[in-house]
Write a structure and sequence with these properties.
Blueprint (H helix, E strand, L loop, with lengths): L2 E2 H11 L12 E4 L4 E2 L1 E7 L2 H9 L4 E6 L13 H12 L3 E4 L2 H5 L5 H9 L2 E9 L2 E14 H12 L4 E3 L5 E7 L8 H7 L3 E4 L4 H10 L2 E4 L2 H4 L1 H15 L2 E4 L7
Parallel strand pairs: 4-5, 4-13, 5-6, 10-11, 11-12
Antiparallel strand pairs: 1-3, 2-6, 7-8, 8-10, 9-12
Helix pairs in contact: 2-3, 5-10
Length: about 250
């Protein structure tokens, strides 16, 4: 089913509650392409590979978590890498939409709530306040599990090896999740007395903090932990708007 680009942007801006967030990213439509959208591609980050693959699969729009446009971080001259990225988008008449914090925080398709649900956590609550808004999720396993089993579950779910500071209890009950580069939010897990904290990237100070506070710290990769939201958003768009959706999975170990 075809939708207009204007309709798609308005729907996503409302569904993801863009106005709630103070974000360094420019959320919503970043580059305008075709006026009509039938097929959408979703990916974690805006890059030449994503643009080329989106064009190759016949996408009319690409939706990403990490967009091209960030407040105060766009070059004065569009040249080099930036020029080639824009050229690919414009030559393909491909729209680019990006949703950063809104796609971390959403209770249905967000990186963190979706992971918590899929991992089997219950009693979910907002967690990890960033710029005044919680963007993570914390919860409790109805049946606590051995730490070793929990870490294996994380690696299987995210498809990425875990960097682990296994300082918490050997039986895991309570877990906080905040994807991407959110090592600093481990301090909230410590304050709440959670058994484990899951994020994307490790942080050197947070390893000592979690070690001393007896909280297990697990980092599963920035890119890997943020595939969750775009895939879930794609599933939502397929069901809610009848769009064709293609998930673009690109190699990135970071």
């Amino acid at each position: 089913m075809a939708r207009t680009l204007t309709e798609l942007v308005a729907h996503l801006d409302s569904f993801l509650e863009v106005g709630r967030f103070q974000d360094d990213a420019l959320n919503g439509l970043q580059v305008e392409g075709k006026a009509e959208v039938r097929r959408v591609a979703v990916a974690v980050s805006a890059c030449r590979e994503a643009f080329g693959k989106a064009a190759a699969v016949g996408a009319d729009a690409l939706i990403v978590h990490h967009g091209l446009l960030w407040k105060g971080d766009w070059p004065r001259a569009v040249r080099g890498v930036h020029r080639e990225r824009l050229r690919l988008l414009l030559d393909s008449n491909l729209s680019l939409l990006a949703y950063h914090l809104p796609l971390d925080a959403h209770p249905q398709v967000g990186n963190n709530a979706r992971a918590a649900i899929d991992l089997g956590l219950q009693d979910l609550k907002p967690f990890a306040v960033y710029h005044g808004t919680p963007i993570g999720t914390r919860g409790r396993f109805p049946s606590p599990r051995p730490r070793s089993e929990f870490l294996e579950q994380l690696e299987a779910y995210y498809g990425h090896p875990a960097f682990v500071e296994a300082a918490g209890p050997e039986i895991v009950s309570t877990v906080g999740i905040c994807s991407g580069g959110a090592a600093r939010e481990a301090s909230e897990a410590v304050t709440l007395g959670l058994d484990a904290y899951v994020t994307g990237e490790p942080g050197e100070p947070e390893v000592f903090l979690c070690r001393e506070a007896a909280v297990t710290f697990a980092a599963l990769g920035h890119h890997a932990t943020e595939k969750v939201g775009v895939r879930a958003l794609g599933d939502y768009l397929r069901e809610a708007l009848g769009l064709e959706v293609v998930f673009l999975d690109m190699y990135n170990e970071a």
